[in-house]
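Limitations

Structures in this collection are predictions, not experimental determinations, and the ligand pose is part of the prediction. Treat each record accordingly. The example that follows, with AHG as the small molecule, is included so readers can see exactly what is and is not provided: the inputs are given verbatim, and the output is the predicted complex.
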Amino acid sequence: MSPINRQVLTLDEFTIQSLRQFPQATGELSTLLRDIGLASKRVNVEVNKAGLVDILGDTGTMNVQGEEVKKLDVFANNQFTGVLQRGVSCAGIASEEMDEFVSFDDDVSRNSKYICMYDPLDGSGNIDVNVSIGTIFGIYRRVSDRGTPVTREDFLQKGKHQVAAGYIVYGSSTMLVYATRRGVNGFTLDPSIGEFCLSHPDLKCPDAGNIYSVNHGNYYQYEEGVKKYITLCQNKNKTNGGPYTQRYIGSMVSDVHRNLIKGGIFMYPGTIEKPKGKLRLLYECNPFAFIVEAAGGKATNGVQPILEIQPTELHQRTPFFIGSKTMMEEMESCLASERTEEKIKA
Ligand code: AHG
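Predicted complex:
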C-alpha cells in the first residue's frame, strides 16, 4: 500500500475496533484506556518542558516508602487520579505515591466495574537529568459488588487476575504499550495530531536475547545463584552464545521496554540489606509480568511466577526477574543449582 493510503489506527480507533469483535462488551475498558491515554499525554507535555518550568526537583517530602517525592511525581499522580475519578469506568485506584487506596465514592464511579493501580512516574531518580521515565498501570475487575465502595480485597488480587496492563515510556518518542489476554500492542504518540498511533502491533518478546539488565553495584549482596547467572552472561559458552551485553538505565520502564522488543532479561534481585529488593509488586512487577507474559516471556520472583503471588500489602516489594523465555530459564537453573548446593551444605 502506498504510504499516502496507509491507514494508521489511533489508540481510540484500535480499542473501538477490538470492541466491535465483542458485541456484548460494555466499552468500559476502552474508556478506561482512553482516560489513561489522556492523562499520559498531559504528563508527557510537562515532562517535555520540565527544564523550563518549576517542576523539576523535590517537593521536600517523603513517600510512604521513605523516598524523596519529586514535583513531577505529584503532578503525574494528580493527573492519573483526576482523570480516572472524573471518568465513568473506574471505581477506585491505588498509587505508588499514596499511602492508601482511594474509593471514588460518587454514584457513577461506585457502579463502575474496574479498579486501577499505578506507578504514575517510575524512574523519578532520572527526572532531573533528562533520562527516559515512565508510567506503569494494571487494571482489575473489582471483586466487591458494584454499587458499593471498593475494598482492600479489590486491590490485593493476584496479578494473574489483571484484565489489562500497560506502560507509557516518555522517551525519544513517547509510547504507550498495553496488553490484554489477546496480546500486546504498542502505540507511538504522534505530536502533530496529539494521538497515540498503532506502531507496534502484536508485540512478541523474542524467545532468546543477548541483553542483561541489573544493578552491578549490588553484585556482592546478591545470592550465589544470581552471581552465577551474571557470570554466565559475561562469558562465552556453547549454549548461550555469550557474552551478553549489559544495559541498565535505572528506569525500569525503559529497560524492560527495550528488552521486550530486542530480547533480554531484567533483574532486580533481593540483596543482603533488602531481601525483598526494591520494586513494588502491585504497581511495577504485576503489570510488567502480565505484559511480558502476554508477549511470550516470563516473570518470577525467583521462587514462583510473579502473577501467582498473593499480595498481602498494597506497597509490598518483591525480587523481580523478567524477560525472554530462554534467558529466564537459564537464570532459574542457576538459582536452583546454587540453592540446592546451599541446602546440601547446610
Ligand atoms: P524510582 O522511581 O524511585 O527512581 O525507582 C526506579 C526503579 C526502577 O525503575 C529502576 O529499575 C530501579 O528503581 C533502579 O534502582 P537502583 O538505582 O537501585 O538500581
